[in-house]
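Changelog entry

Holo records now carry the ligand SMILES as an explicit input line rather than a separate metadata file. Below, a converted record for fe (ii) ion, shown in the new format.
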Amino acid sequence: MNTIYFDAAGSEEARRQCLYEGQLFVFSPRPSSLALCQFADELIQEAFGSLSPEKAQYSLPVEEYAAILAKLKPMFINHPKSKECIQAIVKEFGCDPRKTYFDVPRMRTSTSDGYLTTGIAYAWHPHRDTWYSAPQCQINWWMPIYGIDSNHGVAFHPRYWKDPIKNDSKKYNYYQWNKEFRPNASKHLKEDPRPLPRPTEPVEIEPQIRPVCPVGGIIMFAGAQLHSSVPNSSGKTRFSIDFRTVNGDDLVAKAGAPNIDSACTGTSLRDFLRVSDLSRVPEDVVALHSDGTETMGDLIYRPSTPNALSD
Ligand SMILES: [Fe+2]
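Structure line, unchanged by the conversion:
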């Protein structure tokens, strides 16, 4: 990995190839991405009432804060308008709506100074999404809802694009995760006992790259890219959105970033929806990515209540 493309004008296919080679893309805000951020902002403002969302952590007991997020995040994730906004973004960025699948957007929060770093506001250690059963052709889209700086965004660790790291992704099965661990994120206020794959040897955290873009700007990267939450020392809570896409042709061809160190099982592919009609990835295509662990849990996370958190 050696390049950050800024507002690249090339084809979407060429962009995917570059992403699979570990390059990063950063885009200026566009009408569709700003619309999603604006919608998220409306929900956030409503949830925090008279408090400033970026500063609310300083006025609320952590239990109360986590309870607000536990209501807010599923509302955003599951809202039909969030899906509509993603469909518009993906189209505006040149993806073929009949061949591109997306999953529902997550709203992430990174509180400052270690106020809440577990469960519902997890501070992500360095990881690849492909340790979490993402397909090798997964592309991640990340955008800030409020302004970010170098000290509370997302970081990439480029030397690990080619170098494997010892990690415990072998213990992670997506179906087991759906069944046993996914529903309880908001309960973990002090520590996080969930089996989240992580490096099992020291990570050389430097050199790292921290792209900074305006509200509604997009940072795009391969799911196989090693990335982490920047430890937030900004004095403000960071609110961001991320979602993922996969291309149907690449799924069939089993194209994508090389797998250098992931050993998890199961696949998250059944979560993805086609941009054109919200249909699922066809089962014969999913079957190409199956590994025989389908009986270990739930193939898709089905929350007990419609508004439960899906992450
Ligand atoms: Fe991630």
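Spot-checked after migration. The radius of gyration is 18 Å. Residues 306-310 have pLDDT under 50 and may be disordered.
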